[in-house]
Amino acid sequence: MDIPALHTLTNGIIIGICLSVSFGLVCFKQMAHAINPKYRRACHFFIAASFIIAAGHLAELLVDGFGVYRSLDLFSILVLVLASSQALMFTFMLILLFDSRYVTFANVMKHAVPSLVFILLYVVSCCIEADVCVYSLAEWRACVVHNLPLAVRTLFGVTYTVQLFVYIRLFFRKKRHYITHLKELTGECISKLELRWTMRAFLYALSIGIGAWVLLVCPGPIPEFSFSFLIVVFYPAFAWLYTNYHYTYEMLRRFIVEQDGKLPQPPLEADMGDLICYLQSGDSNHLFEELEAYLQKEQPYLDYNFKRDDLIKALGTNERNLSAAVGRATGLTLQNYLLRLRIRHAMDLLLLPDYANHTIEDIAGASGFKAMRTFNRNFRELVKMTPTEFRRQKSVL
Predict the structure, then answer these.
(1) Is it the case that residue 28 has pLDDT exceeding 70?
(2) 200 or 211: which carries more pLDDT confidence?
(3) What's the chain's average pLDDT?
């Protein structure tokens, strides 16, 4: 088989696989109706990423023609657009599992702005003068200063390289914060399964990003077909890995709910580790009664330096049993349970006449909150109004 025919066949396989992955996840009932919102949003990112890859390779076939092979040039605009969009989507898809609040439209657009700017600049520069194709470093040196579209593509390639390092740093920073957060509030048992899967998925996605970078600076049949092979393997493997993980999650949740009708349903934000804690053995009802008695008597959560280890030592238990006891009794994670106690205490202080002259900041500190922003955000989420509005409304009544 000659190279043009192989090129057409490879693109056709990639288009078929990526479209199959996209439509397969759309039609997969458990994924479409996922209970946990962060898993559902991550699935939407992956569907969009797969569809963009299919659309990009279809566009290449339509432009070049079927049965025609035209080697990619240095800093190919097609590779740059596809690679930058994939790096953005996969990074935020995996960060969803660590910090879903960070994945907002504003933050996604903030990281997408450089790519969008260079795409716009490239279109404008092509309107000014025709782009040139360069296939060697010598050709690039001779043309980059004199051809505006090539200069824009080169800067786009440099920016993509910087973006890869930014995404790597962002991912590991969020992962580190996630681990620290778990150790302070819930325990290490929750981190292992999800972190292992997410780290493996990130390394898979990073290999695609590095492969795209190699293709940008070393174009040719061998790098191009090697990169196509990575895509053919990566997207089905990633889809299988993600679907299998999510299916296991849904099965565990269903098992917990059906195991005993008296148990509350796990919270929507409960991840795989939370569900595993639900299945831990031990007298969770007795442990939760001890927890309630200790918290009511000592109120240690009102100190913002309060640590999870303090609670574990005071109750003489371990991290897993404590998380399972809180989850079974309340349907909440330990973090959310303690948060509600702090907000409830703040609501009581806002209603007391003795605290009428105290500022909101004073009440936040007396309720165990170190930062006003954290207090205001959590108070509004739980009470559906700000602390100031709550105090004003209750004083009128």
Answers:
(1) no
(2) 211
(3) 79
Which CATH number, 1.10.10.60, 3.30.70.100, 2.60.40.10, 3.40.50.10860, labels domain 280-396? 1.10.10.60
- CA 310-194-97 angle, to 5 degrees, is 90
Gyration radius of the chain over CA positions: 27
Is the CB of residue 238 less than 8 Å from the CB of residue 46?
yes
CATH topology of domain 3-256: Rhopdopsin 7-helix transmembrane proteins (1.20.1070)
Instruction: Please give the model's pTM, rounded to 2 decimal places.
Output: 0.61
Delimit the domains of the chain by residue range. 3-256, 280-396
* pLDDT interval class at 120 (50, 70, 90): very high
Answer whether 325's CB lies under 8 Å from 287's CB.
Answer: yes
Residue 395 predicted with pLDDT over 60: no
Whether 280-396 and 3-256 are alike in CATH topology: the answer is no
pLDDT of residue 1: 57
